[in-house]
């Protein structure tokens, strides 16, 4: 049975978080289609990873039999995280926009799993082709033609890092204007916010079903 790697990163809990609510929709549909499947779950807000340090970084460039005992110890977490990514048949990532980019906890995860010559840096990586759904929520609007289009450093960054770097097959689901109901200055955008949220949930459920059909085949 297929394995789903599900990563949440929002600092807000449950339904308060747009990204968590949409990843929950995807996962619910995924589990309905694969009741006997495996889900590897990491909540990087509740259990943040340590930042990559010099020992762990250097170990990634050394052959396993050439690593010092200290490097072996430092590389253990990277090995665990990379292995989780490698064994996943589908990856689900919540990437809410914080200060125009991804949460630092997600960046820490990326720094650990990007291993040159293994998950990255080769024409065919150990993660090439894995379908990946990224829920990129944001409080405002940053789409093409909007005043803040140039401030969008989430999908642009992750498309390059996950797609070009790790070789993942990336699809973005983007609930936006999520602050409209809590920010009086955005009152006129409430309907657009609600529509965007509903569309995101529909897209997440549809993508889960699509991938379920692919694996069933």
TrEMBL record:
Explain how, and how many, cofactor molecules are bound: Binds 1 FMN per subunit.
> Which amino acids does the record list as binding FMN?
10, 17-19, 97-100, 137-140
Write down the InterPro entries for this protein, in alphabetical order.
Answer: Flavodoxin_fold (IPR003680), FMN-dep_NADH:Q_OxRdtase_AzoR1 (IPR050104), NADH:quinone_OxRdtase_FMN_depd (IPR023048)
Keyword Flavoprotein belongs to the record: yes
- Where is each Flavodoxin-like fold domain found? 3-163
Its Enzyme Commission number? Answer: 1.6.5.-, 1.7.1.17
Q: Which cofactor does it need?
A: FMN
Report which superkingdom the organism of origin falls in. Bacteria
Query: Could you tell me what this protein does?
Result: Quinone reductase that provides resistance to thiol-specific stress caused by electrophilic quinones. Also exhibits azoreductase activity. Catalyzes the reductive cleavage of the azo bond in aromatic azo compounds to the corresponding amines.
Its assembly, as annotated, is: Homodimer.
What the record says about family reads: Belongs to the azoreductase type 1 family.
Put simply, this protein is called FMN dependent NADH:quinone oxidoreductase
Q: Gene name, please? A: azoR
């Amino acid at each position: 049975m297929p394995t789903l790697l599900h990563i949440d990163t929002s600092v807000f809990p449950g339904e308060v978080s747009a990204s968590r609510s949409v990843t929950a929709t995807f996962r619910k549909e995924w589990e309905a289609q694969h009741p006997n499947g495996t889900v590897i779950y990491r909540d990087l807000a509740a259990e943040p990873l340590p930042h990559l340090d010099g020992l762990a970084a250097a170990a990634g460039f050394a052959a396993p039999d050439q690593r010092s005992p200290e490097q072996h110890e430092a590389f253990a977490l990277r090995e665990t995280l990379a292995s989780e990514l490698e064994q996943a048949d589908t990856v689900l990532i919540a990437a809410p926009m914080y200060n125009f980019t991804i949460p630092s906890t997600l960046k820490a995860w990326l720094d650990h799993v990007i291993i040159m010559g293994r998950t990255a840096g080769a024409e065919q990586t150990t993660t090439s082709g894995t379908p990946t759904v990224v829920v990129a929520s944001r409080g405002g609007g940053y789409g093409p033609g909007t005043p803040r289009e140039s401030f969008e450093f989430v999908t642009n960054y992750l498309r390059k890092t996950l797609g070009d770097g790790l070789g993942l097959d990336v699809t973005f689901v983007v609930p936006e204007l999520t602050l409209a109901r809590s920010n009086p200055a955005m009152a006129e955008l409430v309907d657009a916010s609600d529509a965007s949220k509903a569309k995101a949930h529909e897209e997440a459920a549809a993508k889960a079903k699509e991938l379920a059909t692919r694996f069933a085949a």
